[in-house]
Model the fold of this input.
Amino acid sequence: MRATLAACLSALSLLLALTGLHVAGRAEAASPAATPWPPQYKAGGTRADVLGPDGRTWFPDWTYAGVQGGIPEVGAFAPIDQFGGRADDGADDGEALQAACDAAGRAGGGAVVLGEGTYYLDRKVLITSSGVVIRGAGRDRTKVVIRYNGTGNRITDGVIVFAGGVNGERRLLTADARRGDASVSLEDVTGLGAGGWLMVEASGTQRWRSLIESSCRLTPRMAMVRIEAVRGNSVTINQPLRIDFPVVDQPYAYKMAPIERCGIEDLYLTQAQRQPKICTVLFIRSVNCWGRRVTVEWTGRMPLYGSHVKWMEIRDCKFNNAHDMGGGGTAYVGWQYSFDCLMENVTTRNMRHAPNLDWSCSGCVFRNSTFYYSDAQTHSGWCHENLFENCVIVDPRGRPAGGGSYGHGFWATPPSDSSHGPNGPRNVFYNCDFQNSGEHAVFEDEMVRYGPTGLVLGGMNENWLFFYNRVLSRGPGILLRGVQFDHIIKGNVFVVDQAFPAVVVEDPGRTRGLEIVGNTVYGGNGALVAAGASAVALDQANRALKQADQVPPRPSPEVPSIYEWERRARK
Ligand SMILES: [Ca+2]
Done:
């Protein structure tokens, strides 16, 4: 059946190419597909939305991303030498680093300073106090060699771990909390006050899993928020919610006890053991924490990672090579269960999925960063409203192949993925460059017919925005699978394989509201999009050109950064 459909589309495409039309529609006009829930993002207009520079497109609000007020310059607490640490003596410095961090925490914070030379960690280091920073003399001067070889075999296990306190009991919401709301009503507000932290969460009820057709047991909807005020049973929060938390799914909130304003900076780390499945540096249950000017070579799992964190910032870092690669490997660069985090000026090589988001991450921003030999993903559990901006994805298959990438520039996990589930609304790609132009194999059998694709959206995806990207692909540019609606694809440059249009809609009966404006496709079959006519709401000012002799340049939009534009607009 697929072959027949492909043949029909191919014939239609030829016809339409001859007549100069760009939308390859089926002959019979179908009525618009019903969406599984009422579309709400394209209309915008809530307190969670920002009207973009074109005066027409509503964007998520990313002005919350990163350490609030910028990463601080924290004063020195003590050199590690005062606690028995010695560079270049071949002996463990883990005991000394732990003792120094404990003392800094007791003193109310400060930087534990490592000097020039090589230090060794033969044990884990756990920081549970706010304000503690681990600082080297520069990543070309301070080297930390991790010889520790144990592992709890959990993703949330690391060699250097900054961890907040335990979560409180669940308190049910007593009314729907809607996208754009800046308060939640709780059955019990005991012990809650201004400045405290809440996680609002709705879990994967049968209703929700049916609605989003998720084969995954876990499909969390989450938001980590600061309490501004408590009046009666109403808790005012620091920012509008990005998604709904309807009472029909018994949403709840729990108090968090995060550590705040911890960081690691100016050093080089490497895991010398081949086997440990363990993160190098992990922040968990934390707020306003950071890593900057850090190089990690040969991490186990994630090189520098956040789980259940908010306003975390990773800046000016390099992450190269990981032990935990291949199928099931967890060499990820990004976050899970995390909110309004920022990654900027980072270069990675030979990770598995980078940049990568898991489990209901929202408001996170990756920008001005280059990722060699890994694929970008929203990799599980309803990640929504995240921004990929001026990210360059180079040869996502990996070098050598077999690193565990799925083989496409970007992959959003589908509802049929029982380990990961589908992703949520309005993730945005702005002025990125996907360079997937090499011949190579792809991860799933059913993807073989497409080959190495630019971006693949797995389904249940609402109002994703693709603005001003360049997509170099050996298959189609963007592949939309299953339920897809209200995406805006604007101002992109595509170079695609001759068998495909720039955008493939795999299930036109479940796709609607696509706006495809001002794009240029080089090569391909001469069409911008293959879709049922009912799937496309707007097709305007697109160009299909023959394959260029040289790789065409990236788009140069009037507003090169939507992130900076929003921050300027807020002032
Ligand atoms: Ca030593």
Q: What stands out?
A: The first strand starts at residue 23 and ends at 24. Confidence is low (pLDDT under 50) at residues 1-30. The CA atoms of residues 445 and 451 lie 10 Å apart. The two ends are 55 Å apart (CA to CA).
